[in-house]
Structure formats: C-alpha cells, structure tokens
Amino acid sequence: MLNSISIKNFRCFDNFRIDGFKNINLIGGLNNSGKTALLETLLLSVYPSPKTISLLRQFRNENNELIEKATEKIWNNFFYNQEKNNTIQIVSKNTDQQISTLEIHTTKDIETFLKNITSNTINAKEFSNLLNSKFSDTLSLNLKGNTQQQDFDYFLLPNKEEKNIGTMGNYPKGFVSPPFLHAALRLDDSQLSNLYSLAKENKKVQQLNEMLHLLDNTIIGSEIDAPGGEPVIKILLENDQSFPLAMFGDAIRKVTELMLILLNTSNGIFFIDEIENGIHFTKHKDLWNKLFQVIDKNDIQIFATSHSAEMIRAFNEVAYEHYPSQAMYFEMSRSPKTQQIIVNSMDMEMLNYQILTHKTYRGE
Amino acid sequence: MPKTLIIIEDDSDKHVFEAIIRHIKLQNSLSVIDTPTNTDWKAVADESNVDQPTALIRALKSLLNDISKEKYDKVGIIRDLDDKAKQEKLSLINNALQEAYPNQSQKLSDTNELVPFTFEQNPTGTLLTVHFACHFVSYDGRGEIEDLLKAIKTKPSPIADCIDKHLPECLQMTEEELREKDLVKLWFNHYQRYDTLPENQRKSPYTTMGHIMTQRTDLFDFDRNIEELNELKQFLQKMS
Fold this sequence. Notes:
The structure holds two protein chains of two kinds.
Chain A: E1 2-10, E2 13-19, E3 24-29, H1 35-46, H2 50-59, H3 65-69, E4 88-94, E5 99-107, H4 111-115, H5 124-132, E6 140-147, E7 150-156, E8 180-181, H6 189-201, H7 205-215, E9 219-225, E10 232-237, E11 242-244, H8 250-263, E12 269-272, H9 284-298, E13 301-306, H10 309-322, E14 327-334, E15 341-346, H11 348-356
Helix pairs in contact in A: 6-8, 7-8, 9-10, 10-11
Chain B: E1 3-8, H1 13-29, E2 39-43, H2 54-68, E3 72-80, H3 86-100, E4 115-120, E5 127-137, H4 145-151, H5 158-174, H6 180-195, H7 209-215, H8 227-239
Parallel strand pairs in B: 1-2, 1-3, 3-5
Antiparallel strand pairs in B: 4-5
Helix pairs in contact in B: 1-7, 2-3, 4-6, 5-6
C-alpha cells in the first residue's frame, strides 16, 4: 500500500509532498488545485511506462497536431511551468518502506538508449518502428527509475501512433490500460467485456449486480452477449427484458466500469477521478459502502477525487462509522500569497468535525 | 487578507462584542461602521474540565486547516470567568493549546497579551505566524457577559430589579435552585423585554441579541469607565 509521494517539477507541482495514505483516500479541493494532477502522478508512480505517459496525454485531450507541427512542445505540459529542460522527480514509499523512484527528462541523446537495446526492452515491431523513425533531431522523453525493485529505462518518441519503445505497461491481468476511472472517458465495449469475463471467471459478477441493483432496483443482473459477433455487456431487468449497457445512463455505465475495474484489481491500486460524476446523491453512501466492502476483502487501495460536498459527506458518514482507520481525506488548495499548492490531511474524526460545524473542507 | 478569529462561548455573545467593536471604531473614525468584516466568530461551549477541554481542543485542531490556508493571523479566545480564578481559566486555555498543538512550546502567560505561535505549512514548509490571546469576561468578581451589561445599563429597570430581588426568596420557598449566572441572565431578559420595550414589541425580533446590539444599543453605555469593560475594549482593539 502506498504511504507517501513526493513530486518535483511535474504538472502543477514544483516541490510537493503528501503522506499518510490509507486504504481509501479521497482528495477534495478547489478547481485547479492539483487534484487530478496528483492522481496522475500517483498513477505514473505505480505504472511508470511510456504507455501511461501516452494515456495521460489522452486523458488531457492533448492535441496530436502538436506532434506534426510543434514537436518541440509535445512534452511541455508534463513539466512545472512548462520548463521542459528540468527533470521531473517522483518518489513514492509504501507501508513496507519500499521506495519507488521515477525521473523524467527530455533528451535528444537516443544513442545511449540504442546501445542498451536488448530483446527485453524492445519487441520486433517496436524495433522496426524505431528503424523507420527520424529521431536524429527528435525530442524524446526518458523515463528512468526503479519500481518494485526493478530498474527501468524507457524512451518515448513523439509519435502519433503506438510506436513507442518499451510500451509495456505491466498493468494487472485483463487490463489494457491501468485501473483508472476517468471523469469522462469510458472504456470501450471490448475492454469492458474482457473485464466482465474475468470477473465472471473469478465469481465476482454478483457484486457488480448487487451494486447495480442498489442504483436501480429494477436491475436484477447482467450477462455477456455477442449478437453481432462482438461481445457486449447486457443488463437484465426484473420484467425479463435485457438491454445493452450502452442504452443506460451515465450512472449505470460509470458504476459498471468502476465495479469491473475494482473487482479485477486484487492487491492493486485503483484511481478514480471525479467519483461523483453522474451518480445521484442518494446513492453516494451505497457506493462508498460497496467500495469499502470490496477493498477490505481484496487488499485494494483507492485514490479518488471529488468536488461534491454530498459525495465527501457520504464518504465521511460511511468511513467515520465503520472504517475510520482505513480512510483519509486530503483537502487541496493554494496559498493566497504564493499560489503554491497546499494540502490539509484530515482523518475521519476531523472531517466529521469540519462538516458538522460548517467549517470549510473543500479548499475554500 | 488574513483575518481575526475569535472563539466565544455562545453565538449570541458575538453581537455584544461586535457592538463594542463598532462603538470603538465609531469613536476613532467618527463615521458609521457596519458589522466588522475582518473578524470571524466561532462558538465553542465552555467546559469545566480544566485538564481536558475537549470541545476547545477540537476547535483549535480544526483551526489548523484554516491557518494552513493563511486565513487568520490572530486568534482570540473569550470565555466567561464564571466562578473560577483567572489562573485556573488560563491553565484551561493553555492545556487546550498544548493538546491541540503539541509542537508548540509557547504559553499565554496572561490575558490580553498577543503571543506568536509559528506553524509550518504543508507541504511548502512556509512558516506562518499566528498571534493568540485570551480574555475572560467578568464584572466585580462575577463572570457573565450579562453581569457586565447590567453594570452599564442606561435605563430604569424596576421590573428586572424587582424580580431579581424577590426571586431567590421565592425559589427558596419552593426548594428550587437557580445559579447566580442564571439569575443575571433572567435580569437581562427582563430589562431588555419588560423595562425597555412597549408591550406590543415584547417579542422576536425586538428581543433577540442581534437586534438589541444593533438597534437598541442605547440600553447600554459602552463609554462607562469600568475597569473590566475597559480591558475588554482593549482586547477587542488588539484583535481587530
């Protein structure tokens, strides 16, 4: 389980440190106070790979035109104040005191990397792409460090397609991308079906069905169907009808994805951005109850962000009563004088006090 | 801009203190001052347990969040002296401060004195200085805000005085008991309601503390030369 992280020169963090993580960590705060950036940093720290970097660009909807028109600027947004000549440093520590390090910098020195190529760091397709690339004057991103006692050294070329070297992500079994629930981007049918099949194999679908029933009591189950050859998830209703998941609203689709990621993330870390999006406030407590139940059984750590007072209050109500030692709340804001990002860590008793006494807890 | 936080015992007390602040500012600037905007008030009930004033400790711990956000540069704590000695009350405040901020070694050695406490902002490491001070409300050895208000009343108070005079005797006959602090609160209520309001106005909103301390301040003489009032005014002036 992650216990702390320190960050230098990444996104909006010039020099930032946060510690005291628990099993479920909820991050609240004002807009532009670094909540999502913190989630991204944690993700990158756990899965330091070129694929994760590409995914972060996709999350931020970064324009691929840059790759063709302004290659020099492609990595700018990863660096604090867009100073791409600095080095990003991310160091995380887990509760067993194991340290993971990650250093990221831009470079044009691809020769060093080429000298160290082995069949372990690059596959045939990637090598072929590399030979076809014009990288003599290309600004690459180098990711170097150590995680889970393994050294890594990746180069990421500014290619539009997945032509990057060392794209392996080491994501959990069944995942083609890391366990990260984006605020708006949803997994496609194929990815969801894979996760569903895996959950079914491990006899965990019942927990998904229970959660969907809590959201809508006319839902009695779910199944995989492949009417046109491509497998899709179908939701079963109490009137014996069933509909593809895509026919349902935001909440059902989002919670299905959330539960499928969660149920397949044993011994891992799950990231959820803007957890409240699309979910009616009367269901917030049900969701937290389910999350706490599942992480308890499967040794999962969760990092989630939220803007919503209702979602934060529901988190506190559930955790304060049943799981006080497993939850922590982090309030992020900016110093009025220096605009640097600051953070207040609150255990469930303190958060409860802030809520009951109408004190601030969302960065106000 | 950093503000002042004043921790008080009861929400209604703030109206009295705000009236005094307005009065001081009016004297100083000769212009009409609205409700002071630079001061936040937080009501935390008083506690008798000197060693473990739980509510105050929790309020002070919670304050760390606001301090971290650079919201306050002064924090005042006003308590009624009740029937306690000043040193006993002071140790209650210091115990609460020590419990809430174990890394701080400073103590409040006296009332009405601003003492700097330094806190480290997380994770920037910026040192933030917040001045703490406390004040105990009392008049002539009795420790309620109403004791002080009674001492500076400006209007005749025959009804309040009559009830105040005969109530203890009556209570004794019925074997009921009221503390001195309850009796003075009753006096205050009778004074502002029955001695100074026409019959058709003896109801809310005319009788709320907020209304009294903004619309009916002529019931009290905030300029009266009383040591305890002067000390309270000095405290509020230091905090603003």
